[in-house]
Structures are given as structure tokens and as C-alpha cells.
Design brief:
Layout (H helix, E strand, L loop, with lengths): L4 E10 L4 E10 L2 E22 L2 E17 L4 H14 L2 E6 H10 L1
Parallel strand pairs: 4-5
Antiparallel strand pairs: 1-2, 2-3, 3-4
């Protein structure tokens, strides 16, 4: 079922919080079935240094926060799987849901 859904990705840069955001559009055939918005951030104090030959490279670990996820019908799970797979491929160490975090803050 995941193969029947196409995903279009539009990267954006936010000057406000210096993050890269990704806007996702999900389609099945010619029909748009949903959209999502994800922000990426550096994880504080998690810098990995790699030394190769005479060059040392600092790699900052990053996390993704799903700010918006609106999908029609029963396509939520395959769309979320596709989204999470993309985020792992581009090197996101952690993936969080902004909506879940907001609900937790309200209930406390």
C-alpha cells in the first residue's frame, strides 16, 4: 500500500529559529490525500567528531518534529511510514510529534 502513495517534498529554511523545514504533500494517483510539515533541529550537546586522513569533521545530530500531519481516510499509517522513512534516510536521529508534545503540556 505504501507504494501506491507518492510523496512530494519541498524544503524550506526558517530564519526565525534557524531550522530547515520540510513541507510534504501526499497523493494517490492524481488525488491529493494529505499534507505534513516537519521542522528539523540540532540536538543540544550531541556533536560527533570523525577524523579521516588529516581532516576532522564535526557532525551535529539532528531531530525532526512533525508539526502538522493531515491525511484523508485510512491512509494515515502508510503516509506516516513513508514520512518516517524519509526522515531516517536524511539522518534524523530522533523523530517527535509536535501534537503529542502539546497535548502532554496541556494535561500537566
Amino acid at each position: 500500500m505504501m507504494n501506491n502513495i507518492s510523496m512530494k517534498v519541498n524544503p524550506l529554511y526558517s530564519d526565525l529559529d534557524m531550522s530547515i523545514q520540510f513541507q510534504f504533500e501526499f497523493s494517490k494517483g492524481d488525488c491529493k490525500v494529505g499534507q505534513a510539515m516537519v521542522s528539523t533541529y540540532a540536538i543540544n550537546n550531541n556533536v560527533e567528531y570523525r577524523k579521516s586522513q588529516s581532516v576532522t569533521i564535526a557532525k551535529v545530530e539532528k531531530c525532526a518534529v512533525i508539526d502538522q500531519f493531515e491525511i484523508a481516510g485510512d491512509l494515515g499509517e502508510p503516509c506516516m511510514n513513508k514520512l518516517r522513512h524519509f526522515l531516517k534516510v536524511i539522518g534524523m536521529k530522533e523523530i517527535h510529534s509536535g501534537y503529542d508534545m502539546a497535548r502532554e503540556r496541556i494535561s500537566n
